[in-house]
Amino acid sequence: MIKVLSVIGTRPEVIKTAILHKLLLENQNFELTICATGQHKTIFEETLSLFELSPDIELRYVNSNLPLMQRVTEITADLDTRIRELMPDFCIIQGDTLSGYSAAQAAFMNKIPLVHIEAGLRSHDMQDPYPEEMYRHFIDSVSDVLLAPTYLSKQNLIKEQINSEKIFVTGNTSIDALKYALEKIDKPGFDPGFDLDRKINQVRALGKTPGLITIHRRANWGEKLQLTLLELDQIAQSQNLYLFYCMHPNPEIHMWVKRTKLSHIDIYPPLPYFDFIWMLKNTDLVFSDSGGIQEECAYLNKPVVVLRSNTERPEGISHGGAVLWQKFDVEQMAKYISAAGSAPKDIYGDGSASAQIVKILENKFLSIGS
């Protein structure tokens, strides 16, 4: 049996590995150990439980207020100990997080083969997003199996002289999770929390367009967050929108939001994943700095304004469903909504990525476990 260690620490990592984890647990060829780094705590555990999953290993909590390098050092040291105890046949990491970066270092230093889900994403700017772009480059440089979501991602890796035989295009696992969530919320009786159904109906009854906001990236913290929210509030007023802001749990984000007076934006704590997907499906326009939400919006044919100066997911821009914040024209909102509605929905995947990954892992590692 093949021993697999999967390291996750944030809610997006839970979501994007959930279906793969379920398939690996069902597969008799694999012995899966899920390690939680504690990077996100409460929303991490809540999201795992939605997928009927739980961690096998939980690292000691590292204070999120510590300097970034200190957090990396402590998590990496803890992971190093766990990896040497477990000695897995390979290690899975997802995306571009502090947890993934730490796991990549620990696995590489112990000569454990590394599998990277969501390989090859590039903004081509080391400072935006910071530090995620650096994480991506490092993780891909030491990975043995690189699971690229799109052919453009694969080309990015080839340009960096990474052996093409190590690269597999699978689509993004976020779409697998999205399809799972849509099945749940489309069942009769599903009721999102916070009375959201009634509030959306009220907004529409007033002739307003409901929209959704998420902001979490480090580059948008501080005064920039406040200025962005104030500008969105003004846009909502001038364009007859009403916006729902799902606030990230980071304490610094909370501090700046409390200082900001908003009249056309409702503020909510992080919604459970299924409730959030319900909101995504039932609003007409999205403002977000999230990468995963760009993928989800494409599949749902929802327009997304990317609250960044660039994106490592240019496919959405090319197909017209996404627009960068700096190029967003409030007078063209109807055009964005129309373009998103007619764009191909499978540019980031069709929901089969996890099943493809299991086959790739069997072909690569099955001889080890036999």
Structure commentary:
With 370 residues, the protein is an alpha/beta fold. It has 2 domains: 2-171 and 352-369, Rossmann fold (3-Layer(aba) Sandwich), CATH 3.40.50; 192-342, 3-Layer(aba) Sandwich (Rossmann fold), CATH 3.40.50.2000. Helices cover 48% and strands 16% of the residues. It is built from 15 helices and 13 strands. It has helices at 11-26, 42-50, 68-86, 98-109, 132-142, 151-159, 173-185, 196-205, 223-238, 251-258, 273-282, 291-300, 314-319, 333-342, 353-369, and strands spanning 2-8, 30-36, 57-58, 90-94, 114-117, 145-148, 167-169, 209-214, 241-246, 265-268, 285-288, 304-306, 322-324. Strands 3-2-1-4-5-6-7 form a 7-stranded parallel sheet, sandwiched between helices. A 6-stranded parallel sheet has the order 10-9-8-11-12-13, sandwiched between helices. Helix 10 (251-258) links the parallel strand 9 (241-246) and strand 10 (265-268). The protein starts with a strand and ends with a helix.
Question: Which percent band covers the strand fraction?
Answer: 15-25%
Instruction: Encode the helix/strand succession as letters.
Output: EHEHEHEHEHEHEHHEHEHEHEHEHEHH
Placed side by side, the strands forming the largest sheet appear as 3-2-1-4-5-6-7
What structural class do the secondary elements suggest? alpha/beta
Distance between the termini: 6 Å
CATH superfamily of the largest domain: Glycogen Phosphorylase B
**Radius of gyration over alpha carbons?**
20 Å
Q: Give the CATH topology of the largest domain.
A: Rossmann fold
Give the overall shape, derived from the CA principal axes. globular
The main sheet comes to: 7 strands, parallel
Going by CATH, the architecture of the largest domain would be 3-Layer(aba) Sandwich
Unreliable spans: none
State the total count of DSSP E strands: 13
- The number of domains is 2
Mean residue pLDDT: 95
CATH class category label of the largest domain:
Alpha Beta
Task: Enumerate how many helices there are, as a single number.
Answer: 15
Helix content: 40-55%
